[in-house]
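#struct-pred

JT: dropping the chains for the assembly here, can someone run the whole complex?
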Amino acid sequence: MKLEGKKAIWSDYQKEIADDRYFYVRSCVRQNFFPGSETAFLKIMREELKRDVYEHPCHTTCTGIGYHGDIVPVETAMTVVARQFSLMTEAGYENLLPSCITSFGLYTEILDTWHHFPEVEEKIKKQLKKATGREFSKPKNLAHASDVIYKFRKEIAAKAKYKLINKNTGEPLKVVDHIGCHYAKMFPSKGIGGAEYPYVLAGMVEEWGGRVVDYPERRHCCGFGFRQYLVQANRGFSIACSKEKFESMKPFKPDMIITNCPGCPMFLDRWQYVINEMEGKRYGQNGEGVPVFTYEEVAGLVLGYDPWDLGLQMHQTDCEPVLDKIGIDYDPDEKYNTSIPDEKTRIPGLVNV
Amino acid sequence: MEKYYDLLMQDIRFEEGLNACMNCGVCTAICPAAEFYNYDPRQIVDTVQSGDNDEIEKLLKSDTIWYCGECMSCKTRCPRGNAPGLVIMALRALSQELGFFVESEKGRQQLAVKRTVGQWILDHGYCLYLEGVGTDLHPEQGPVWDWIQDNYKEIFHRLGANYQGEGPGILRKIPEEAMEEIRKIFEVTGGNRRYEKIEFYSKKKAEELNLELDGSNDNEYFRYIYKTNNGTHTK
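RK: done, full complex below.
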């Protein structure tokens, strides 16, 4: 195939990503498990890239986990989302920037439903007005926060202090990319590379010096499954999905995993700990785990941010093997320092995955 | 007798998710739930599509409709543009509306989801509440999570959060006027009604099973639905 033809086909897998003036909506899971990632994202956007990112204090959950846990009815979810749109409209913004993949998927689904069923949009408008007196305009652009980091990946590379390269061998790190299911499986045209060739994380990895690992279960769900994790009796499903991925990637000897959904890194991190506790099995090299990162953490690391300011101490699977391979300068004694003067640093019991 | 198919048709997701299924089974091939559970989305869509009332009622009362993880991998692959995952969401909504969910082990778990995630949404404005997720109910969170919970104020402060604070920021306290709007939306759009139905039918089932159920998450019925796995769900 001629190069022009390839470019023409690939253009179908691109999406429009706004350049500036974003209305940021936070993620319930990311705020609880990876707060340093949202802090790093805003620092990168505002201080490194000089972009306008606005956050309204009155925005709430989109109800996404409740919606996919089937306790929140579809019209309730739609009206809560309409209220988020109203806050955006009120603040004078048009580009919606969710931190969460479940939210991104829900916003995409709702906008698609309203496109095909305008009468549903009208009904939701009336319900929002009745409940809150609010009106709204729909976003002109909807991009997940990982889309935006992808868009600015070259600018980040230009400012980078480190590369995803093993300092001892000079070889690129082998990176597993794990894309959240609701990023592009529901609406492939809304994700960079679609559902077949998702490039949102691979693009960052390649730009920052790493090499993406392809492996059989690359597109498999991490196993969250909403109710399948939320209820203890169902968690066997959740861990089985993650284990399938680990078994599949192991022969390719990955150095690290990068993710764009807030839940996936938590599951891929914690289930490694559980599998080790249950079976004494680890999937990294030299008897270690495979460190799992959010894309904000990886962007922060290449920009030279302190690992403990990024929150890597909140991971159960140790990140140090990757920090050491890259040659990142960090203070091991600071890891569990809670920065309370005159108080002895408390260290978690068993953290040895 | 009510025609369940007609009731399902009132759900926009059913209309979106089911065109004409040709039973190719691609959805089952890609489905993570079908990999581990006794679960076959092709069969479910086939049953629903047949419109057989008795068979649909069996589904609504079964464990089967609760195995799906809603990853929506099926939507990507269906050559007819169907989304079995959306059909499942419509079936689950109807099962709760009619009170059928308490007839299966997996369906009964909806009370646990409602009393955790559902309550956190209305109480705090988040789907997840840091202080509600302890290693007692979530041992897989590991020792690092105990450390985080013991030191959350210092850790979240260091990481730039605004835990329970005024104004914007990570895990800020959602202002009361915003919470009022969320609660009003739940009232106007049927969210409260769904919650009340889950509570109502769960209470009836608890009485039938002679298990104690109070308003907390520490009682016989809650523990029973949260932890029971009769071992017949997987292959």
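JT: nice. The radius of gyration of chain A is 21 Å. Chain A has a mean pLDDT of 94.
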